[in-house]
Inverse folding.
């Protein structure tokens, strides 16, 4: 059965790979770019939560204080002014979506300070639905020259990005691998669990005003209840009891994924949305690399959950029961293990981890309706298959390899082709090890 599933997966992944090659201009696993916002129509009163336009005025390294900034709204009327403080910072609160004109009053610039040649004044910034923050920056001359910074290393920067992205994929892929290990079923609706977690956290954080950390906890509980317990109780559990084959269940999961994905599109539309908290912020300049505090937090959270999952699977009774069901469900049942209860718990854990991965990914890249299914699902399957179907360690290390390959390959091939490069390397590795890096060859007969 495992070989049959592997063959079907190979066909499906090969088909998706072909589609990916034909649409490489859109297949970029890096930060998904928000579509251009549609200018607000005249009289539009669509509100955005706590919208803010801000910036920092510096001439070289010298903050410029006392400069007046004027902001005009989509209808051309003045909506607010600000004056830079001692650190050069300023901010203006706005309410409507659409285009805004931000202009420096050059008459208020200190003596010896001027706009750099070619700097636009006024500048245009545009809010799309769901966006809450925009920066308007102006280049000034006349201050102290900025010190020479150390040369950056594109390789090290790509390596850090690859580790971050690979860890997020690993958190998302564990549930996919555990479900296959305990049921033999490849769930093509797993990507929508990432989107569910991200949108749940977005609604709680932006719409209801709940702080993002608490919103994340509540969103993970919802993922466990809806995407894990309810999904297995109402759909997959009854199908298992009816003896539905894994191939039929896989096809059902594809239909479920498409249905849920387009429900997300109808409800949240096609815009890339951002959480209210932890946007912007200064990055750390660490010699040859630049690191955002947000990225470090993402890596730490992902590592904590990965280590916790591995410890639970290896040190607890439930973890040992899960491994027993994965190795031999019939023998596990004969030993007194409630196989259905174990599988349901696997669904809950997998849904929670997928929701967490969606929130971690969206904290940096934004929330979008197809981020899980069209954006990350193929890469999750690549990591799981590369590491070995049904193995937790395989899902983790396979996902790390895929994440690193995607980011590092962008150094030598066009960015729009980096997904294709990673999948090509995966195919080459599988030609040498058909069962994956950590998979076990199945005995027949």
């Amino acid at each position: 059965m495992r070989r049959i599933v592997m063959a079907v997966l190979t066909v499906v992944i090969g088909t998706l790979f072909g589609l990916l090659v034909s649409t490489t201009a859109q297949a970029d696993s890096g930060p998904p770019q928000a579509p251009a916002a549609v200018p607000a129509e005249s009289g539009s009163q669509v509100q955005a939560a706590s919208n803010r336009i801000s910036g920092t005025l510096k001439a070289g390294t010298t903050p410029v204080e006392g400069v007046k900034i004027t902001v005009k709204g989509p209808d051309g009327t003045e909506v607010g002014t600000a004056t830079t403080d001692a650190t050069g910072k300023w901010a203006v609160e706005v309410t409507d979506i659409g285009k805004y004109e931000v202009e420096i009053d050059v008459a208020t610039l200190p003596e010896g300070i001027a706009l750099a040649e070619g700097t636009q004044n006024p500048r245009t910034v545009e809010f799309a639905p769901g966006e809450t923050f925009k920066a308007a920056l102006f280049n000034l001359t006349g201050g102290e020259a900025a010190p020479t910074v150390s040369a950056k290393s594109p390789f090290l920067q790509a390596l850090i990005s690859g580790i971050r992205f690979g860890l997020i994929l690993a958190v998302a892929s564990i549930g996919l691998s555990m479900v296959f290990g305990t049921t033999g079923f490849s769930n093509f609706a797993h990507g929508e669990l990432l989107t569910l977690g991200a949108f749940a956290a977005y609604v709680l954080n932006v719409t209801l005003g709940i702080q993002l950390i608490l919103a994340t906890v509540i969103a993970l509980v919802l993922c466990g209840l809806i995407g894990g317990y309810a999904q297995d109780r109402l759909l997959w559990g009854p199908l298992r009891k009816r003896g539905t084959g894994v191939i039929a269940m896989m096809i059902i999961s594809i239909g479920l994924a498409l249905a849920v994905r387009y429900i997300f599109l109808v409800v949240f539309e096609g815009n890339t949305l951002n959480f209210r908290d932890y946007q912007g912020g200064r990055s750390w300049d660490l010699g040859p690399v630049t690191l955002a505090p947000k990225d470090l937090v993402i890596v730490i959270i992902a590592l904590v959950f990965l280590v916790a999952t591995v410890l639970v699977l290896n040190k607890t009774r439930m973890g040992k029961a899960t491994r027993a069901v994965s190795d031999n469900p019939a023998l596990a049942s004969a030993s007194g293990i409630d196989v259905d209860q174990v599988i349901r718990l696997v669904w809950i854990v997998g849904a929670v981890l997928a929701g967490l991965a969606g929130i971690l990914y969206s904290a940096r890249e934004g929330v979008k309706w197809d981020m899980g299914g069209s954006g990350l699902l193929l890469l999750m399957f690549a990591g799981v298959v590369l590491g070995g179907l049904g193995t937790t360690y395989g899902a983790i290390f396979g996902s790390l390899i895929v994440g690193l390959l995607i980011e590092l390959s962008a150094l030598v091939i066009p960015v729009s082709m980096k997904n294709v490069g990673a999948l090509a390397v995966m195919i080459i590795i599988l030609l040498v090890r058909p069962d994956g890096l950590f998979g076990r060859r199945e005995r027949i007969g």
Notes: Residues 49-141 form a domain with the Immunoglobulin-like fold (CATH 2.60.40.10). The longest strand covers residues 47-56.
